[in-house]
Design a protein that fits this description.
Layout lengths: L1 H23 L6 H4 L13 E16 L2 E6 L2 H16 L8 E3 L3 E12 L3 H10 L3 E10 L4 E4 L2 H12 L5 H8 L13 E9 L3 E9 L3 E2 L2 H10 L7 E3 L6 H7 L4 H7 L16 E3 L9 E13 L5 E5 L7 E5 L4 E12 L2 E2 L4 E9 L5 E5 L18 E5 L10 E5 L6 E3 L4 E9 L3 E7 L4 E8 L10 E2 L4 E4 L11 E7 L2 E3 L8
Parallel strand pairs: 6-9, 13-18
Antiparallel strand pairs: 1-2, 1-4, 3-5, 5-6, 5-8, 7-12, 10-11, 12-15, 14-18, 15-16, 15-17, 19-20, 20-27, 21-26, 22-23, 22-25, 23-24, 24-27, 27-28
Helix pairs in contact: 5-7, 8-9
Length: about 500
């Protein structure tokens, strides 16, 4: 029996060895693991000097998805960054540290090859190409944008400077302190700021960033906030007849923004410009959105009702007699409008109005029921709530007035006076346009309409009647009406004729 147990024990040991022996033997080289990275195509190529039966953990340094090399001693990298910090960055960035640049990452990868040691060449490459990041103040905004700054105070001052591009300092300081500006009186014309704020929330943390991305001064912070990291400034040299308003219009920026960009050389929108002056005309592409809501009270013209026509068979056909002359009325109108980074978002609305002078309707007698087609000689603006965006000669050759409906950018185009439509067509410059002959020597021109005019040639239209819609067809940077008044074919300044 004792021999039986001995034999049984030996058998058990043999079976146990059979099963556990494979776990103690070296693993075979796995082709897909050992060739996980190709050092022949690396920035610093490294030859395979041997293979190993045991897995090797390699520290592989990548730069923009390309291998720089395989690092043997990671402590050398740390020592080199410490030395680079002391030599180059400690003065400008005291009490901080260096890290690898944003396009570099260190990866631990497994293989069975042993590579030649080129730590010195790898570290020299990183050092000579300055592939480092510095710990700085990282400001993250709720819209996903990020900026790195050396000093948080520079950011705070730069953000205030950016805000002052869109709002006056006094109003900004009052609102920033949680107060409100005084209300406008019933007969007080001007603008009152209701609210002003940056729409994005922000958080402040520490983060590593390349030197090139860290704003070291207030001016650098302003530039990045205004145009982003990739933004490039655009400059323009003034020419004869240039005006501040015209330059802003040509480059699709606000006058306030143009003045802010060039505060050292421009002090007023009415300033005379010296030919050859170089101006910064870079459009805003801001990381932040500064929203300002304003209340604006203005005196506006109130147009009378359509002329009262009385047919008088005692007058010869074609004879017209004005019994009551038209008189324009006046009203104090109050609007509320929102601007983002200095530009209206087109949500303006009239919130109140008070008539200060009632308009007087024209009363006209015409002979024998002749429908009036001869102009009154009194012109109105071709849009409601008219806002002039480019005056007579606001740039060289501009013999017209560009008019926008301040609160309805794509509203109706209205006949400036009664008359007959003699042209309704399209050109590459002025887009869809209409010409009205007022049959008294005057003609008016309406350009950039969104589509063809409402009426065919030969139609008689009345003053204030809609003849099309505002648009920006042809050569235009925004919706408006290119408006001309001509007498005997000669262009006249509409601002001297409207309301006369």
């Amino acid at each position: 029996m004792k021999q039986f147990y001995t034999l049984l024990g030996a058998l058990a040991v043999a079976l146990l060895m059979t099963f556990i022996t494979p776990f103690f033997q070296p693993k075979a080289i796995s082709a897909n693991v050992s060739s996980a990275f190709d050092t022949d195509d690396a920035i610093i190529p490294q030859k395979v000097i041997s293979t190993s039966e045991l897995e090797q953990t390699h520290k592989v340094i990548y730069y923009k998805d390309k291998i720089i090399g395989i690092l043997h001693d990671e402590t050398k990298l740390e020592a080199m960054m410490d030395m680079a910090y002391k030599d180059r960055y400690a003065k400008d960035f005291p009490d901080t540290k260096l890290g690898l640049g944003e396009d570099i990452h260190l990866s631990s990868e497994v293989g069975y090859f042993v590579y030649e040691d080129k730590d010195d060449e790898i570290l020299n490459y990183i050092n000579e190409n300055n592939l480092f990041s510095v710990e700085a103040t990282k400001i993250e905004f709720s819209n996903g944008e990020v900026i790195y700054v050396k000093n948080l105070d520079d950011f705070t001052a730069a953000r205030d400077e950016l805000a002052l591009s869109y709002i006056d300092k006094e109003s900004y300081e009052i609102l920033k302190n949680g107060k409100t500006l005084p209300e406008l009186g019933d007969y007080e014309y001007g603008t009152r700021v209701l609210s002003a704020e940056f729409k994005e929330e922000m958080s402040v943390v520490k983060g590593l960033a390349p030197i090139s991305k860290i704003a070291k001064t207030q001016d650098e912070v302003v530039k990045i906030l205004s145009y982003g990291y990739e933004g490039e400034e655009v400059f323009y040299k003034t020419k004869e007849y240039d005006t501040v308003q015209g330059i802003a219009w040509l480059h699709n920026i606000t006058v306030a923004h143009l003045l802010s960009l060039n505060h050292e050389s421009l002090v007023s929108e009415n300033q005379l410009l010296k030919v050859g002056t170089e101006l910064n005309v870079t459009p805003t592409n801001s990381m932040l959105n500064f929203e300002v809501t304003k209340e604006n009270q203005v005196e506006e013209t109130v147009y009378p009702s359509e002329t009262l026509v009385i047919y008088d068979d005692s007058l010869r056909e074609g004879i017209e007699v004005i019994d009551t002359k038209q008189e324009l009325g006046k009203e104090n109108a109050r609007y509320q409008e929102t601007f983002v980074n200095g530009k209206s978002i087109g949500d303006g609305k009239k919130i109140s109005s008070v008539i200060t002078k009632q308009p007087i309707r024209e009363v006209k007698r015409v002979g024998t029921k002749v429908y009036p087609h001869i102009g009154s000689g009194h012109f109105r603006w071709p849009v409601e709530v008219a806002s002039i965006t480019c005056s007579w000669y606001c740039y060289a050759g501009h013999q017209a007035t560009d008019v926008q409906n301040r609160y309805n950018f794509y509203g109706q185009v209205l006949a400036s006076d009664r008359g007959t439509i003699v042209e309704s067509s399209y050109t590459g410059i002025n887009g869809y346009y209409v010409v009205i002959d007022h049959n008294n020597g005057y003609t008016t021109y309406y350009g950039h309409m969104s589509g063809p005019g409402f009426f065919p040639v030969g139609t008689v239209v009345q003053q204030g009647e809609a003849i099309g819609n505002i648009g920006m067809t042809g050569y235009a940077t925004g919706p408006h009406v290119h408006f001309e008044i001509r007498y005997q074919g000669q262009r006249l300044d509409p601002e001297t004729m409207v309301g006369r």
